[in-house]
Amino acid sequence: MRRPDHRRPVIVRLVLPFLMAMTLTGCKPEASNPAAPAAEMSPMDVSTVVAAAATVPRTLDLPGRLASTRVAEVRAQVSGIIQERAFEEGSLVRKGDVLFRIDPAVYKAEVDARTAGVARAEATRTQALRQSERTETLLEKQAASTAQHDIAIATLRQAEADVASAKAQLARARIDLDYATVRAPIGGRIGRALVTEGALVGQAEATKLALIQQVDPIYADFNAAASDPSLLVEQAAGKEAAEVRLVLPNGSLHPDAGRLLFTDVSVDPGTGQVSLRATFPNARVALLPGTYVRIQVRQGTIPGAVVVPAQAIQRSSAGGAQAYVVVDGKTALRPLRTGALTGAGWIVEEGLKADEVVVVEGFQKIQPGMPVNPVPWKGAWSTEASRKS
């Protein structure tokens, strides 16, 4: 009789799970391939404009510096102690406004003394006049000699001269008393006070008390190459009206146009340049003397110039102008050579052609060669000139 095999159930229990796992694995769907390429991202939107070909003003862009129309140093003309400062520092003053008051006691006493001196001289003259009249009467009666009459006449003339001298000294004393009240010699903006109440001024020299600068209108001094045609000279001489604009340090244009005044009569031998001056209205005192600016002098027009908005121009690390353009749906960074900044935008002299698409907004997030979606710029921009047909 054979013995039952007790090992078979053990083998079945070990093989059965393996067979089931194989069966389930064969029934599973095929896994997705992780190496399959992901869907491409859509191009980024950027605001663009089409570079315009337009007729724009031809301008000379020259560096310059602002200067006051008139400058007056307020000085003490008499000595004394400052009693009062009668103005607010940095304010606008008018001609004749009281600025300082110096202690007038000494000068009032001097006026009183000189007034008494005039009265004394006039009394002496009156006495000399009467003596001269009496001597003349006695001379007619032959009771006095001619010599006595001449002496009386000379005494009268001397008394009259003493009166005139006393009056002049009185006038001088009154002038000194008036100088004790320091007034503004011109109208303009006054700076800080250079002395305080209680200071002794004018003891040895005319002490400087403050500075007044007239800044409305204001001058802009600049230089131009003497080798240029004499158009600027003719404009400065008034033969032709010249539109002069002022570019502020932040790149914006001063709202009011200026007027070219004159050109210097000599050329600087070291630089080969000639000095010019223009004047600009400055009613709001927004322009301050000493500021470095750029002057634009219009000289006719440039037909077919390429113009882009000012926002489209960037600066490289070296300071050169550059801009992003869109070519075949991708960006390209172009180095540019720009001309003058006009009301229509920057004039591009090299590096850009008319009808090319230029990025105005959104270039902070793009790089050269990146695909983009050009969207028309919604900003206000007009070439302010006739476009090229």
From TrEMBL:
Domain Multidrug resistance protein MdtA-like barrel-sandwich hybrid per the UniProt entry, residue ranges: 70-213
Pfam families for the chain: Beta-barrel_RND, BSH_RND, HH_MFP_RND, RND-MFP_C
UniProt-listed InterPro entries: MdtA-like_b-barrel, MdtA-like_BSH, MdtA-like_C, MdtA-like_HH, RND_pump_MFP
Listed Gene3D superfamilies: 2.40.30.170, 2.40.420.20, 2.40.50.100, Helix hairpin bin (1.10.287.470)
Domain Multidrug resistance protein MdtA-like C-terminal permuted SH3 residue range list: 305-365
Protein source organism: Methylobacterium trifolii
First and last residue of the signal peptide: none
Family: Belongs to the membrane fusion protein (MFP) (TC 8.A.1) family.
Primary location: other
Compartments in which it is found: Cell envelope
Residue intervals of the Multidrug resistance protein MdtA-like alpha-helical hairpin domain: 116-180
Protein name: Solvent efflux pump periplasmic linker SrpA
Domain Multidrug resistance protein MdtA-like beta-barrel: 217-300
